[in-house]
Amino acid sequence: MKVLKFGGTSVANAQHIKQVQNIIKNLDENNIVVVVSALGGITDLLLRTIDMASNQDEKYKDSLQEIEDRHIKTIKELIPIQLQSAILSKVKSELNTLDTLAEGAFLIAEKTPQLTDKIVSFGELLSSYIISEFFVSAGMNSAFKDSRELIKTDDTFGKAAVDFENTNKNCNAYFSKTKNKITVIPGFISSTAQGNSTTLGRGGSDYSAAVVASAIDAEELQIWTDVSGMYTANPRIVKQAKAIPQISYEEAMELSHFGAKVLYPPTIQPVLSKNIPILIKNTFAPEEAGTLIAKNDNAQGKSVRGISNVEHITLLSLEGPGMIGIPGISKRFFEVLSQTGISVVLITQASSEHSICVGISDVDAAIAESLVNKAFEYEIATNKIKPVLVESELAIIALVGDNMKSHQGLSGKMFSTLGKNNVNIRAIAQGASERNISAVIRKDDVKKALNTLHEEFFEENIKQLNIYVMGVGNVGSRFIKQIQNQKKYLKKILKLNPRVIGLSNSRTMIFDEDGIPLENWDELLAKGKKADRTVFFNTVLSNNHRNSIFVDNTASETIANTYADYLKHSISVVTCNKIACSSDYKKYSDLKELSREY
Ligand code: ASP
Protein backbone atom coordinates (compact mmCIF):
# COMPACT_ATOMS: atom_id res chain seq x y z
CA MET A 1 0.00 0.00 0.00
CA LYS A 2 1.12 3.51 -0.75
CA VAL A 3 -0.03 6.73 0.83
CA LEU A 4 -0.03 9.80 -1.42
CA LYS A 5 -0.62 13.25 -0.01
CA PHE A 6 -1.51 16.23 -2.19
CA GLY A 7 -1.08 19.73 -0.74
CA GLY A 8 -3.23 22.84 -1.15
CA THR A 9 -1.65 24.09 -4.39
CA SER A 10 -1.87 20.59 -5.92
CA VAL A 11 -5.65 20.67 -5.43
CA ALA A 12 -6.20 24.41 -5.77
CA ASN A 13 -8.64 24.18 -8.70
CA ALA A 14 -10.21 21.78 -11.21
CA GLN A 15 -7.26 21.90 -13.55
CA HIS A 16 -4.80 20.96 -10.82
CA ILE A 17 -7.08 18.21 -9.53
CA LYS A 18 -7.08 16.69 -13.04
CA GLN A 19 -3.30 16.66 -12.85
CA VAL A 20 -3.59 14.77 -9.54
CA GLN A 21 -5.93 12.29 -11.20
CA ASN A 22 -3.36 11.65 -13.94
CA ILE A 23 -0.66 10.98 -11.39
CA ILE A 24 -2.83 8.44 -9.60
CA LYS A 25 -3.96 6.80 -12.81
CA ASN A 26 -0.36 6.30 -13.90
CA LEU A 27 0.52 4.58 -10.65
CA ASP A 28 0.73 0.84 -10.95
CA GLU A 29 -0.69 0.05 -7.51
CA ASN A 30 -3.63 -1.88 -6.13
CA ASN A 31 -4.10 -0.04 -2.90
CA ILE A 32 -3.69 3.68 -2.61
CA VAL A 33 -4.62 6.04 0.19
CA VAL A 34 -4.92 9.60 -1.10
CA VAL A 35 -4.71 12.30 1.56
CA VAL A 36 -5.68 15.78 0.44
CA SER A 37 -5.42 19.30 1.80
CA ALA A 38 -8.14 21.90 1.47
CA LEU A 39 -8.29 23.68 -1.90
CA GLY A 40 -5.33 26.12 -1.81
CA GLY A 41 -6.07 29.19 0.32
CA ILE A 42 -9.34 27.85 1.81
CA THR A 43 -7.92 27.19 5.30
CA ASP A 44 -6.73 30.81 5.51
CA LEU A 45 -10.11 31.97 4.30
CA LEU A 46 -11.93 29.87 6.91
CA LEU A 47 -9.71 31.26 9.65
CA ARG A 48 -10.38 34.80 8.45
CA THR A 49 -14.11 34.06 8.36
CA ILE A 50 -14.19 32.96 11.97
CA ASP A 51 -12.07 35.94 13.04
CA MET A 52 -14.43 38.36 11.33
CA ALA A 53 -17.55 36.61 12.58
CA SER A 54 -16.37 36.55 16.18
CA ASN A 55 -15.49 40.26 15.87
CA GLN A 56 -19.05 40.84 14.64
CA ASP A 57 -17.80 42.03 11.28
CA GLU A 58 -20.56 41.35 8.76
CA LYS A 59 -17.96 40.89 6.04
CA TYR A 60 -17.54 37.32 7.22
CA LYS A 61 -20.45 36.58 4.90
CA ASP A 62 -18.39 37.68 1.88
CA SER A 63 -15.68 35.19 2.68
CA LEU A 64 -18.27 32.45 3.19
CA GLN A 65 -19.57 33.33 -0.25
CA GLU A 66 -16.06 33.12 -1.69
CA ILE A 67 -15.62 29.68 -0.09
CA GLU A 68 -18.91 28.52 -1.56
CA ASP A 69 -18.10 29.90 -5.04
CA ARG A 70 -14.69 28.20 -5.15
CA HIS A 71 -16.15 24.78 -4.32
CA ILE A 72 -19.17 25.06 -6.61
CA LYS A 73 -16.97 26.19 -9.50
CA THR A 74 -14.59 23.27 -8.92
CA ILE A 75 -17.48 20.77 -8.95
CA LYS A 76 -18.93 22.26 -12.14
CA GLU A 77 -15.59 22.04 -13.88
CA LEU A 78 -14.80 18.51 -12.73
CA ILE A 79 -18.00 16.49 -12.68
CA PRO A 80 -20.11 15.68 -15.75
CA ILE A 81 -23.31 17.70 -15.69
CA GLN A 82 -25.67 14.74 -15.28
CA LEU A 83 -23.87 13.72 -12.05
CA GLN A 84 -23.57 17.16 -10.54
CA SER A 85 -26.86 17.60 -8.69
CA ALA A 86 -26.34 14.98 -5.96
CA ILE A 87 -22.84 16.26 -5.28
CA LEU A 88 -23.90 19.90 -5.32
CA SER A 89 -26.71 19.25 -2.89
CA LYS A 90 -24.42 17.40 -0.45
CA VAL A 91 -21.82 20.18 -0.63
CA LYS A 92 -24.47 22.85 -0.21
CA SER A 93 -25.81 21.13 2.87
CA GLU A 94 -22.27 21.07 4.35
CA LEU A 95 -21.90 24.74 3.48
CA ASN A 96 -25.16 25.46 5.28
CA THR A 97 -23.81 23.85 8.42
CA LEU A 98 -20.68 25.99 8.02
CA ASP A 99 -22.90 29.12 7.70
CA THR A 100 -24.72 28.19 10.89
CA LEU A 101 -21.50 27.70 12.82
CA ALA A 102 -20.09 31.03 11.60
CA GLU A 103 -23.33 32.76 12.45
CA GLY A 104 -23.11 31.27 15.93
CA ALA A 105 -19.66 32.84 16.37
CA PHE A 106 -21.07 36.14 15.07
CA LEU A 107 -24.03 36.13 17.47
CA ILE A 108 -22.07 35.32 20.58
CA ALA A 109 -19.07 37.42 19.42
CA GLU A 110 -16.74 34.66 20.45
CA LYS A 111 -14.57 31.93 19.04
CA THR A 112 -13.23 29.00 20.97
CA PRO A 113 -10.42 26.72 19.79
CA GLN A 114 -13.00 23.95 19.58
CA LEU A 115 -15.32 25.95 17.33
CA THR A 116 -12.36 27.08 15.21
CA ASP A 117 -11.35 23.46 14.63
CA LYS A 118 -14.91 22.57 13.72
CA ILE A 119 -15.11 25.40 11.19
CA VAL A 120 -11.64 24.97 9.71
CA SER A 121 -12.24 21.23 9.18
CA PHE A 122 -14.67 22.06 6.37
CA GLY A 123 -11.76 22.88 4.05
CA GLU A 124 -10.41 19.33 3.96
CA LEU A 125 -13.86 17.71 4.29
CA LEU A 126 -15.14 19.42 1.16
CA SER A 127 -12.00 19.01 -0.94
CA SER A 128 -11.69 15.29 -0.19
CA TYR A 129 -15.37 14.62 -0.86
CA ILE A 130 -15.30 16.48 -4.20
CA ILE A 131 -12.07 14.81 -5.30
CA SER A 132 -13.34 11.37 -4.43
CA GLU A 133 -16.60 11.97 -6.31
CA PHE A 134 -14.61 13.21 -9.27
CA PHE A 135 -12.56 9.99 -9.31
CA VAL A 136 -15.74 7.93 -9.13
CA SER A 137 -17.33 9.96 -11.95
CA ALA A 138 -14.23 9.24 -14.05
CA GLY A 139 -14.70 5.51 -13.55
CA MET A 140 -11.96 5.02 -10.96
CA ASN A 141 -12.46 2.55 -8.15
CA SER A 142 -12.43 5.14 -5.38
CA ALA A 143 -14.20 5.81 -2.08
CA PHE A 144 -14.24 8.57 0.49
CA LYS A 145 -13.47 7.96 4.16
CA ASP A 146 -13.71 10.63 6.84
CA SER A 147 -10.35 10.66 8.63
CA ARG A 148 -12.06 11.76 11.86
CA GLU A 149 -13.20 8.17 12.12
CA LEU A 150 -9.61 6.96 11.76
CA ILE A 151 -7.29 9.45 13.45
CA LYS A 152 -8.04 9.88 17.15
CA THR A 153 -6.47 12.61 19.28
CA ASP A 154 -6.57 14.34 22.64
CA ASP A 155 -8.55 17.57 22.95
CA THR A 156 -5.75 20.09 22.35
CA PHE A 157 -7.78 21.91 19.73
CA GLY A 158 -5.65 23.61 17.06
CA LYS A 159 -2.77 21.18 17.41
CA ALA A 160 -4.03 17.92 18.83
CA ALA A 161 -1.78 15.04 19.85
CA VAL A 162 -2.49 11.73 18.12
CA ASP A 163 -3.62 8.74 20.14
CA PHE A 164 -1.57 6.24 18.16
CA GLU A 165 -3.01 3.15 19.77
CA ASN A 166 -6.59 3.85 18.75
CA THR A 167 -5.61 5.42 15.45
CA ASN A 168 -3.57 2.37 14.44
CA LYS A 169 -6.44 0.08 15.42
CA ASN A 170 -8.97 2.10 13.41
CA CYS A 171 -6.77 2.34 10.33
CA ASN A 172 -5.94 -1.34 10.31
CA ALA A 173 -9.55 -2.36 10.82
CA TYR A 174 -10.69 -0.15 7.95
CA PHE A 175 -7.92 -0.63 5.39
CA SER A 176 -7.62 -4.39 5.85
CA LYS A 177 -11.24 -4.73 4.72
CA THR A 178 -11.70 -2.09 2.08
CA LYS A 179 -12.17 -3.40 -1.42
CA ASN A 180 -11.55 -0.05 -3.10
CA LYS A 181 -8.38 0.54 -4.99
CA ILE A 182 -8.30 4.20 -3.96
CA THR A 183 -9.43 5.70 -0.66
CA VAL A 184 -9.54 9.47 -0.46
CA ILE A 185 -9.31 10.95 3.02
CA PRO A 186 -9.14 14.52 4.29
CA GLY A 187 -5.78 15.55 5.74
CA PHE A 188 -5.31 17.80 8.77
CA ILE A 189 -8.51 16.76 10.60
CA SER A 190 -9.09 14.20 13.30
CA SER A 191 -11.36 13.80 16.31
CA THR A 192 -11.37 13.19 20.04
CA ALA A 193 -12.66 10.01 21.66
CA GLN A 194 -15.97 11.85 22.11
CA GLY A 195 -16.12 12.61 18.39
CA ASN A 196 -15.30 16.34 18.46
CA SER A 197 -13.36 17.59 15.42
CA THR A 198 -9.72 18.44 16.05
CA THR A 199 -6.88 19.52 13.76
CA LEU A 200 -3.22 18.55 13.69
CA GLY A 201 -1.66 22.03 13.34
CA ARG A 202 -1.19 24.26 10.29
CA GLY A 203 0.34 22.28 7.47
CA GLY A 204 -0.82 19.13 9.27
CA SER A 205 -2.05 17.17 6.24
CA ASP A 206 1.49 15.86 5.75
CA TYR A 207 1.31 14.59 9.29
CA SER A 208 -2.08 12.90 8.72
CA ALA A 209 -0.55 11.08 5.77
CA ALA A 210 2.45 9.98 7.84
CA VAL A 211 0.23 8.79 10.69
CA VAL A 212 -1.86 6.65 8.33
CA ALA A 213 1.24 5.37 6.48
CA SER A 214 2.76 4.27 9.75
CA ALA A 215 -0.49 2.68 11.00
CA ILE A 216 -0.91 0.51 7.93
CA ASP A 217 2.81 -0.17 7.40
CA ALA A 218 2.71 1.46 3.98
CA GLU A 219 5.46 0.65 1.59
CA GLU A 220 5.99 4.35 0.79
CA LEU A 221 4.68 7.78 1.71
CA GLN A 222 4.60 10.23 -1.19
CA ILE A 223 4.21 13.94 -0.55
CA TRP A 224 3.11 15.74 -3.71
CA THR A 225 3.70 19.47 -3.59
CA ASP A 226 4.58 22.40 -5.85
CA VAL A 227 8.37 22.05 -5.75
CA SER A 228 10.58 19.21 -6.93
CA GLY A 229 11.81 18.09 -3.54
CA MET A 230 14.06 19.42 -0.80
CA TYR A 231 16.68 21.74 -2.21
CA THR A 232 20.33 22.30 -1.39
CA ALA A 233 19.22 25.81 -0.37
CA ASN A 234 16.11 27.94 -0.69
CA PRO A 235 15.72 28.19 -4.50
CA ARG A 236 14.07 31.58 -4.21
CA ILE A 237 17.31 32.98 -2.79
CA VAL A 238 19.91 30.74 -4.44
CA LYS A 239 19.29 30.36 -8.17
CA GLN A 240 21.81 27.53 -8.47
CA ALA A 241 20.11 25.42 -5.77
CA LYS A 242 19.19 21.90 -6.86
CA ALA A 243 16.80 19.24 -5.60
CA ILE A 244 18.59 16.73 -3.35
CA PRO A 245 18.05 13.22 -4.76
CA GLN A 246 18.35 11.35 -1.47
CA ILE A 247 18.54 12.43 2.12
CA SER A 248 18.30 10.76 5.54
CA TYR A 249 15.35 11.22 7.91
CA GLU A 250 17.57 13.14 10.32
CA GLU A 251 18.89 15.47 7.64
CA ALA A 252 15.37 16.09 6.38
CA MET A 253 14.27 16.88 9.92
CA GLU A 254 17.10 19.37 10.37
CA LEU A 255 16.36 21.01 7.04
CA SER A 256 12.64 21.24 7.62
CA HIS A 257 13.08 22.61 11.14
CA PHE A 258 15.53 25.09 9.74
CA GLY A 259 13.32 26.74 7.20
CA ALA A 260 12.85 24.37 4.23
CA LYS A 261 9.06 24.59 4.04
CA VAL A 262 8.65 21.50 1.86
CA LEU A 263 7.64 19.20 4.68
CA TYR A 264 5.75 19.79 7.94
CA PRO A 265 8.51 18.83 10.44
CA PRO A 266 6.51 16.40 12.66
CA THR A 267 5.73 14.29 9.56
CA ILE A 268 8.97 12.36 9.73
CA GLN A 269 8.59 10.90 13.20
CA PRO A 270 5.77 8.36 12.61
CA VAL A 271 7.38 6.89 9.48
CA LEU A 272 10.96 6.98 10.77
CA SER A 273 10.36 4.32 13.39
CA LYS A 274 9.04 1.98 10.69
CA ASN A 275 11.62 2.90 8.08
CA ILE A 276 8.95 3.88 5.57
CA PRO A 277 10.58 6.00 2.86
CA ILE A 278 9.11 9.42 2.02
CA LEU A 279 9.25 10.54 -1.59
CA ILE A 280 8.71 14.24 -2.23
CA LYS A 281 7.41 14.95 -5.72
CA ASN A 282 6.19 17.90 -7.77
CA THR A 283 2.57 17.65 -8.95
CA PHE A 284 3.36 20.07 -11.75
CA ALA A 285 6.55 18.30 -12.91
CA PRO A 286 5.93 14.62 -12.09
CA GLU A 287 8.74 13.56 -14.42
CA GLU A 288 11.32 15.09 -12.07
CA ALA A 289 12.90 12.67 -9.63
CA GLY A 290 12.12 14.58 -6.43
CA THR A 291 13.75 13.79 -3.09
CA LEU A 292 13.75 10.42 -1.38
CA ILE A 293 13.94 10.57 2.40
CA ALA A 294 15.12 7.24 3.78
CA LYS A 295 17.53 5.67 6.25
CA ASN A 296 21.09 6.85 5.77
CA ASP A 297 23.26 3.98 4.69
CA ASN A 298 25.74 6.11 2.90
CA ALA A 299 28.39 7.08 5.40
CA GLN A 300 30.74 8.01 2.55
CA GLY A 301 28.29 10.38 0.87
CA LYS A 302 28.33 14.12 0.53
CA SER A 303 29.31 15.82 3.76
CA VAL A 304 27.09 18.88 3.46
CA ARG A 305 23.63 17.95 2.23
CA GLY A 306 21.94 21.31 2.33
CA ILE A 307 22.08 24.83 3.66
CA SER A 308 19.04 26.20 5.36
CA ASN A 309 18.02 29.50 6.80
CA VAL A 310 15.52 30.82 9.30
CA GLU A 311 14.70 34.49 9.25
CA HIS A 312 13.17 36.84 11.86
CA ILE A 313 15.45 35.77 14.67
CA THR A 314 16.22 37.73 17.83
CA LEU A 315 19.18 37.01 20.09
CA LEU A 316 18.75 37.38 23.83
CA SER A 317 22.01 37.57 25.73
CA LEU A 318 22.21 37.35 29.46
CA GLU A 319 25.56 38.32 30.87
CA GLY A 320 27.25 39.44 34.01
CA PRO A 321 29.85 38.51 36.58
CA GLY A 322 27.15 37.08 38.87
CA MET A 323 26.65 34.15 36.54
CA ILE A 324 30.04 32.53 36.83
CA GLY A 325 29.91 29.23 38.66
CA ILE A 326 26.34 29.83 39.90
CA PRO A 327 24.13 26.88 39.09
CA GLY A 328 20.54 27.42 38.07
CA ILE A 329 20.87 30.64 36.08
CA SER A 330 20.26 28.95 32.74
CA LYS A 331 17.45 26.89 34.25
CA ARG A 332 15.66 30.08 35.30
CA PHE A 333 16.39 31.73 31.95
CA PHE A 334 14.89 28.84 30.00
CA GLU A 335 12.04 28.40 32.44
CA VAL A 336 10.67 31.91 31.87
CA LEU A 337 10.80 31.39 28.15
CA SER A 338 9.17 27.99 28.19
CA GLN A 339 6.44 29.00 30.63
CA THR A 340 5.30 31.60 28.11
CA GLY A 341 5.47 29.11 25.25
CA ILE A 342 8.45 30.82 23.60
CA SER A 343 10.39 28.37 21.52
CA VAL A 344 14.19 28.53 21.65
CA VAL A 345 15.75 28.02 18.23
CA LEU A 346 19.43 28.11 19.16
CA ILE A 347 21.56 28.21 22.31
CA THR A 348 25.17 29.16 22.95
CA GLN A 349 27.11 29.50 26.14
CA ALA A 350 30.76 30.34 26.38
CA SER A 351 32.82 28.17 28.70
CA SER A 352 33.57 31.20 30.89
CA GLU A 353 29.87 30.95 31.89
CA HIS A 354 29.84 34.73 31.71
CA SER A 355 27.03 34.83 29.18
CA ILE A 356 24.24 32.72 27.76
CA CYS A 357 22.71 33.55 24.46
CA VAL A 358 19.54 32.16 22.90
CA GLY A 359 17.88 32.70 19.54
CA ILE A 360 14.10 33.13 19.49
CA SER A 361 11.60 34.37 16.94
CA ASP A 362 11.35 38.17 16.44
CA VAL A 363 7.65 38.13 17.35
CA ASP A 364 8.46 36.89 20.87
CA ALA A 365 11.24 39.44 21.49
CA ALA A 366 9.34 42.13 23.41
CA ILE A 367 7.57 39.81 25.79
CA ALA A 368 10.72 37.73 26.34
CA GLU A 369 12.71 40.85 27.22
CA SER A 370 10.29 41.99 29.89
CA LEU A 371 9.84 38.52 31.37
CA VAL A 372 13.57 37.78 31.59
CA ASN A 373 14.30 41.17 33.15
CA LYS A 374 11.55 40.54 35.68
CA ALA A 375 12.81 37.05 36.49
CA PHE A 376 16.31 38.42 37.20
CA GLU A 377 15.12 41.64 38.86
CA TYR A 378 17.16 41.05 42.00
CA GLU A 379 20.39 40.15 40.19
CA ILE A 380 20.00 43.14 37.87
CA ALA A 381 19.33 45.53 40.77
CA THR A 382 22.45 44.25 42.55
CA ASN A 383 24.57 44.50 39.36
CA LYS A 384 25.27 40.78 39.24
CA ILE A 385 23.65 40.45 35.86
CA LYS A 386 23.03 43.05 33.17
CA PRO A 387 19.53 43.62 31.76
CA VAL A 388 19.03 41.17 28.92
CA LEU A 389 20.53 42.36 25.64
CA VAL A 390 18.07 42.07 22.76
CA GLU A 391 19.19 42.15 19.13
CA SER A 392 16.59 41.67 16.42
CA GLU A 393 16.51 41.54 12.61
CA LEU A 394 18.84 38.58 12.56
CA ALA A 395 18.74 35.21 10.80
CA ILE A 396 20.20 31.75 11.22
CA ILE A 397 21.97 29.93 8.44
CA ALA A 398 22.91 26.30 8.92
CA LEU A 399 24.96 23.67 7.14
CA VAL A 400 23.24 20.30 7.43
CA GLY A 401 24.59 16.83 6.71
CA ASP A 402 24.92 13.46 8.46
CA ASN A 403 28.41 12.93 7.19
CA MET A 404 29.80 16.25 8.38
CA LYS A 405 31.09 14.53 11.51
CA SER A 406 33.60 12.53 9.55
CA HIS A 407 35.04 15.60 7.81
CA GLN A 408 37.28 18.09 9.49
CA GLY A 409 37.60 21.69 8.42
CA LEU A 410 33.98 22.22 7.39
CA SER A 411 33.24 24.87 9.98
CA GLY A 412 36.58 26.49 9.18
CA LYS A 413 35.59 26.65 5.54
CA MET A 414 32.11 27.93 6.40
CA PHE A 415 33.33 30.75 8.59
CA SER A 416 36.25 31.81 6.44
CA THR A 417 33.99 31.92 3.37
CA LEU A 418 31.56 34.14 5.24
CA GLY A 419 34.36 36.26 6.69
CA LYS A 420 35.91 36.89 3.30
CA ASN A 421 32.59 38.27 2.17
CA ASN A 422 32.21 40.60 5.10
CA VAL A 423 29.38 38.62 6.73
CA ASN A 424 29.59 39.22 10.43
CA ILE A 425 28.77 36.23 12.61
CA ARG A 426 26.93 37.04 15.85
CA ALA A 427 26.70 33.55 17.37
CA ILE A 428 27.59 29.99 16.48
CA ALA A 429 26.08 26.67 17.53
CA GLN A 430 26.99 23.14 16.61
CA GLY A 431 25.08 20.16 17.91
CA ALA A 432 27.07 17.28 19.34
CA SER A 433 25.64 15.12 16.57
CA GLU A 434 27.64 17.37 14.21
CA ARG A 435 24.75 17.20 11.81
CA ASN A 436 24.20 20.92 11.90
CA ILE A 437 26.50 23.93 12.15
CA SER A 438 24.51 27.11 12.65
CA ALA A 439 25.52 30.75 12.55
CA VAL A 440 23.49 33.81 13.44
CA ILE A 441 23.99 36.68 11.00
CA ARG A 442 22.31 39.95 10.00
CA LYS A 443 19.06 39.45 8.12
CA ASP A 444 20.38 41.64 5.30
CA ASP A 445 23.32 39.29 4.78
CA VAL A 446 21.22 36.13 4.25
CA LYS A 447 21.16 36.26 0.46
CA LYS A 448 24.90 36.84 0.21
CA ALA A 449 25.73 34.24 2.86
CA LEU A 450 23.56 31.51 1.33
CA ASN A 451 24.90 32.13 -2.15
CA THR A 452 28.50 32.20 -0.96
CA LEU A 453 28.15 28.99 1.01
CA HIS A 454 26.25 27.30 -1.80
CA GLU A 455 29.02 28.23 -4.20
CA GLU A 456 31.63 26.90 -1.80
CA PHE A 457 29.93 23.59 -0.98
CA PHE A 458 27.82 22.71 -4.01
CA GLU A 459 28.95 24.36 -7.19
CA GLU A 460 32.05 22.49 -8.23
CA ASN A 461 33.97 25.51 -7.09
CA ILE A 462 32.91 27.77 -9.89
CA LYS A 463 33.19 31.17 -8.34
CA GLN A 464 30.93 33.98 -9.40
CA LEU A 465 32.63 37.35 -9.57
CA ASN A 466 30.34 40.35 -9.29
CA ILE A 467 32.12 43.18 -11.03
CA TYR A 468 31.43 46.91 -10.89
CA VAL A 469 33.31 48.84 -13.56
CA MET A 470 33.91 52.55 -13.63
CA GLY A 471 35.37 54.07 -16.79
CA VAL A 472 34.75 52.76 -20.29
CA GLY A 473 37.38 54.64 -22.28
CA ASN A 474 40.15 52.91 -24.14
CA VAL A 475 41.17 50.59 -21.33
CA GLY A 476 37.65 50.20 -19.88
CA SER A 477 36.01 49.13 -23.12
CA ARG A 478 38.87 46.70 -23.92
CA PHE A 479 38.49 45.25 -20.44
CA ILE A 480 34.80 44.56 -21.06
CA LYS A 481 35.62 43.01 -24.41
CA GLN A 482 38.17 40.76 -22.70
CA ILE A 483 35.65 39.53 -20.17
CA GLN A 484 33.23 38.82 -22.97
CA ASN A 485 35.80 36.97 -25.08
CA GLN A 486 37.24 34.96 -22.23
CA LYS A 487 34.04 33.96 -20.49
CA LYS A 488 34.20 30.33 -21.58
CA TYR A 489 37.90 29.97 -20.86
CA LEU A 490 37.58 31.57 -17.44
CA LYS A 491 34.78 29.21 -16.49
CA LYS A 492 36.41 26.08 -17.80
CA ILE A 493 40.01 26.61 -16.80
CA LEU A 494 39.93 29.04 -13.92
CA LYS A 495 36.45 28.13 -12.61
CA LEU A 496 35.43 31.76 -12.60
CA ASN A 497 32.14 33.17 -13.74
CA PRO A 498 32.50 36.95 -14.04
CA ARG A 499 29.38 39.12 -14.33
CA VAL A 500 29.45 42.87 -14.79
CA ILE A 501 26.75 44.13 -12.44
CA GLY A 502 27.44 47.87 -12.57
CA LEU A 503 28.95 50.07 -15.26
CA SER A 504 29.56 53.80 -15.28
CA ASN A 505 31.30 56.51 -17.25
CA SER A 506 31.37 60.16 -16.25
CA ARG A 507 27.89 60.78 -17.68
CA THR A 508 25.70 57.74 -17.03
CA MET A 509 25.59 54.47 -15.11
CA ILE A 510 23.64 51.18 -15.27
CA PHE A 511 23.11 48.20 -12.99
CA ASP A 512 21.77 44.71 -13.59
CA GLU A 513 21.99 42.14 -10.81
CA ASP A 514 21.76 39.30 -13.35
CA GLY A 515 24.74 40.69 -15.26
CA ILE A 516 24.74 43.45 -17.88
CA PRO A 517 24.57 41.95 -21.42
CA LEU A 518 28.06 42.67 -22.71
CA GLU A 519 27.19 42.58 -26.44
CA ASN A 520 25.46 45.96 -26.27
CA TRP A 521 26.67 47.51 -23.02
CA ASP A 522 27.40 50.80 -24.82
CA GLU A 523 23.80 51.29 -25.99
CA LEU A 524 22.47 50.35 -22.57
CA LEU A 525 24.91 52.67 -20.83
CA ALA A 526 23.93 55.58 -23.06
CA LYS A 527 20.37 55.14 -21.81
CA GLY A 528 21.40 54.77 -18.14
CA LYS A 529 20.71 57.12 -15.29
CA LYS A 530 22.90 60.08 -14.38
CA ALA A 531 26.31 59.00 -13.09
CA ASP A 532 26.95 59.59 -9.41
CA ARG A 533 29.86 57.94 -7.64
CA THR A 534 28.16 58.00 -4.22
CA VAL A 535 25.04 56.33 -5.59
CA PHE A 536 27.32 53.86 -7.41
CA PHE A 537 29.13 53.02 -4.18
CA ASN A 538 25.88 52.73 -2.24
CA THR A 539 24.45 50.39 -4.87
CA VAL A 540 27.47 48.12 -4.58
CA LEU A 541 26.89 48.03 -0.82
CA SER A 542 23.14 47.50 -0.93
CA ASN A 543 23.39 44.76 -3.57
CA ASN A 544 25.60 43.05 -1.02
CA HIS A 545 26.80 40.39 -3.45
CA ARG A 546 29.47 37.86 -2.64
CA ASN A 547 32.84 38.27 -4.34
CA SER A 548 32.20 41.91 -5.27
CA ILE A 549 34.99 43.64 -7.15
CA PHE A 550 35.30 47.32 -7.99
CA VAL A 551 37.30 47.93 -11.15
CA ASP A 552 38.50 51.47 -11.74
CA ASN A 553 39.36 52.09 -15.36
CA THR A 554 39.31 55.88 -15.08
CA ALA A 555 42.21 58.25 -14.64
CA SER A 556 40.37 60.27 -12.05
CA GLU A 557 41.87 61.28 -8.73
CA THR A 558 38.42 61.57 -7.09
CA ILE A 559 37.65 57.97 -7.95
CA ALA A 560 41.06 56.85 -6.71
CA ASN A 561 40.22 58.51 -3.40
CA THR A 562 37.22 56.20 -2.93
CA TYR A 563 39.17 52.90 -2.88
CA ALA A 564 39.51 52.91 0.89
CA ASP A 565 35.71 52.96 1.25
CA TYR A 566 35.37 49.90 -0.96
CA LEU A 567 38.17 48.02 0.76
CA LYS A 568 36.71 48.69 4.20
CA HIS A 569 33.61 46.76 3.13
CA SER A 570 35.66 43.77 1.94
CA ILE A 571 35.09 44.74 -1.68
CA SER A 572 38.16 44.08 -3.77
CA VAL A 573 39.63 46.88 -5.85
CA VAL A 574 41.36 46.36 -9.19
CA THR A 575 42.69 49.36 -10.98
CA CYS A 576 44.75 50.57 -13.87
CA ASN A 577 44.37 54.11 -12.58
CA LYS A 578 47.95 55.05 -11.68
CA ILE A 579 47.04 57.86 -9.30
CA ALA A 580 46.36 55.86 -6.17
CA CYS A 581 49.50 53.79 -6.42
CA SER A 582 51.97 56.35 -7.70
CA SER A 583 51.22 59.54 -5.77
CA ASP A 584 52.05 59.83 -2.05
CA TYR A 585 53.80 56.76 -0.72
CA LYS A 586 51.64 57.09 2.41
CA LYS A 587 48.47 56.80 0.33
CA TYR A 588 49.79 53.67 -1.35
CA SER A 589 50.87 52.01 1.88
CA ASP A 590 47.56 52.86 3.59
CA LEU A 591 45.68 51.14 0.78
CA LYS A 592 47.93 48.10 0.95
CA GLU A 593 47.37 47.98 4.70
CA LEU A 594 43.59 48.16 4.24
CA SER A 595 43.54 45.47 1.60
CA ARG A 596 45.53 43.20 3.89
CA GLU A 597 43.18 43.89 6.79
CA TYR A 598 39.96 43.27 4.85
N1 ASP B 1 -5.14 22.95 5.11
C1 ASP B 1 -4.30 22.96 6.25
C2 ASP B 1 -3.42 24.21 6.23
O1 ASP B 1 -3.46 25.00 5.28
C3 ASP B 1 -3.47 21.72 6.36
C4 ASP B 1 -2.57 21.39 5.18
O2 ASP B 1 -2.84 21.79 4.07
O3 ASP B 1 -1.57 20.71 5.41
O4 ASP B 1 -2.69 24.42 7.16
Descriptive overview:
The chain is of the alpha/beta class. It has three domains: 2-225, 3-Layer(aba) Sandwich (Carbamate kinase), CATH 3.40.1160; 306-457, VC0802-like, CATH 3.30.2130.10; 463-597, NAD(P)-binding Rossmann-like Domain (Rossmann fold). Helices cover 42% and strands 21% of the residues. The protein has 21 helices and 23 strands. An eight-stranded mixed beta sheet has the order 3-5-2-1-8-10-11-9, sandwiched between helices. Helix 2 runs antiparallel to helix 3 (60-78). The longest helix is centred in the first third of the chain and has 28 residues, at 81-108. The protein starts with a strand and ends with a helix. Bound molecules: aspartic acid. Residues 7-8, 37-38, 43, 123, 187-188, 202-206 line the site of aspartic acid (ASP).
- The overall number of domains is 3
Bound molecules: aspartic acid
Largest sheet: spatial strand order:
3-5-2-1-8-10-11-9
What's the story with the biggest beta sheet? 8 strands, mixed
Reconstruct the topology from this structure.
Elements: E1 2-6, H1 14-25, E2 32-36, H2 42-54, H3 60-78, H4 81-108, H5 113-137, E3 142-144, E4 152-153, H6 164-177, E5 182-186, E6 189-192, E7 197-199, H7 205-215, E8 220-225, E9 246-248, H8 249-257, H9 268-272, E10 278-282, E11 291-294, E12 306-319, H10 329-339, E13 346-349, E14 355-361, H11 365-375, H12 377-381, E15 389-400, H13 410-420, E16 425-430, E17 436-442, H14 446-458, E18 463-470, H15 474-493, E19 496-504, E20 508-511, H16 521-526, E21 529-530, H17 533-543, E22 548-552, H18 557-560, H19 563-568, E23 572-575, H20 578-582, H21 585-597
Helix pairs in contact: 1-3, 2-3, 2-4, 2-5, 3-4, 3-5, 4-5, 6-7, 10-11, 13-14
This protein binds aspartic acid (ASP).
